[in-house]
Structure to design on (207 residues):
């Protein structure tokens, strides 16, 4: 696997793409949610819907959580976009024995309360029109490796155009105690409940 790096060049890229560059494409960026308190590492689970994924969570982390962000990324994509490794991205190879190495690496990162690890448990980009997301088994196995000495953050990102040329980006997040969620099935169900609550909230927006 390819381990993550954090370099000055990578920080400049991530800051730009999650800041001024993002603001060129979205009319407004809204962040909804209240972070949990405490000195703990964070495992963030997010819906995977666009090219912006990763930079969205970089912005969320910078403005709300303030941790060092690590992002799990498919190895073929990371090799194609090598500079992302300098932004804290590390690789995973699906359907390979090396996935265990990646999960152990993720768990090791989460021993440090200054760190946040972002994964997209769908394992692939999916439509925003989905109402139920399927999680791959790695998310459940990672939870077993970490134990309960961390916090889990659900992150759902939705866009709306309304009467404007540019869409608004809505970043929803909720911090949950992993001790209250046991196994992959319960994690998937809890995330989907939050996902649909976010969609319902967004559907009530009046322009």
């Amino acid at each position: 696997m390819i381990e993550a790096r954090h370099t000055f060049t990578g920080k400049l890229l991530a800051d730009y793409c999650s800041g001024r560059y993002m603001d060129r494409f979205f009319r407004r960026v809204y962040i909804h949610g209240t972070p949990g308190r405490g000195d703990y590492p964070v495992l963030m689970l997010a819906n995977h819907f666009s090219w912006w994924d990763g930079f969205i969570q970089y912005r969320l982390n910078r403005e709300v959580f303030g941790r060092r962000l690590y992002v799990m990324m498919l190895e073929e994509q990371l090799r194609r976009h090598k500079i992302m490794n300098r932004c804290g991205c590390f690789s995973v190879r699906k359907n390979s024995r090396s996935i265990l190495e990646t999960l152990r690496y993720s768990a090791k990162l989460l021993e440090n309360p200054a760190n946040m690890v972002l994964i997209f448990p769908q394992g692939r980009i999916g439509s925003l029109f989905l109402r139920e997301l399927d999680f791959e088994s790695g998310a459940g196995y990672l939870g077993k490796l970490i134990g309960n000495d961390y916090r889990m953050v659900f992150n759902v990102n939705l866009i709306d155009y309304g009467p404007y040329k540019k869409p608004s980006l809505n970043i929803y997040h909720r911090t949950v105690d992993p001790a209250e969620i046991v196994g992959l099935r319960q994690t998937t169900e809890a995330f989907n409940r939050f996902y649909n609550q976010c969609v319902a909230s967004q559907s009530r927006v009046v322009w």
